[in-house]
Amino acid sequence: MRIPEAEMGEEARLGRGRPRSPGTHKAILDAAVELVGERGVLGVTMDAIAARAGVGKASVYRRWASKIPLVIEAVQDAAEQQVPVPDSGNLRDDLEAMFRGFVAAVQMPLGRAIARLMLDSRVDEDLARAVKQGLMQQRHGSVRQLIERAVDRGEVRPDIDVDLVLDMGIAVVLHRLVVLGEGLDDTLARDLADLVMNGIGS
Fold it and tell me: Which fold has domain 5-67?
């Protein structure tokens, strides 16, 4: 029985053609982030992403069967590079580094893409599910491990709500940027780290 192309794993699909080019893959991801930031997920097509990346449509469709998995991977990849979850052994310093990365990211294509992604996910159930499973859970899982290690070191209380810790920082940054229209800098990241630690410290 022939397996439909859309149901095949990526390695199996790519195995029939030329080896996947890391440069092409990265160009497609970068193009997706840029376009989502400009048009939103619902306003972007696979063809438009291919055109922005300067590659053929076949190069995109060989890697992703549809738009949503491509967009999720693109935003996830950019977030991992631009807003890594550090682990220095000092939670306060790690929080400042993480908030500093987020402050920088929201002022770049990644930040615009995340904002549009969140807005579009409110009206598209498939996208909302992908955002929750592909982005939110993974990021929250990484921060949860960071805080659990801090609990083991005695830095913070063991009853901490990890989601609330993340929401506090993200909400303040977005409120300053979107609602108040204020500039963002590393001072905000430092103050946020101090605020969070004052609330969760042991």
Answer: Arc Repressor Mutant, subunit A (1.10.10)
Please give the Cα distance from 81 to 47 (Å, whole number): 25
Indicate whether this model's pTM tops 0.85: no
For the stretch 139-166, pLDDT in tens is 777 888 888 888 888 888 888 887 787 7
Domain boundaries along the sequence of the chain: 5-67, 72-200
Which residues have a Cβ under 8 Å from the Cβ of 161 and sit 6 or more positions away?
A: none
CATH topology of domain 72-200: Tetracycline Repressor; domain 2 (1.10.357)
The per-residue pLDDT for range 55-77, each reduced to its tens digit, is: 999 999 999 999 999 999 999 99
Q: Containing H/E element for 70?
A: helix 67-82
d(CA 122, CA 108): 22
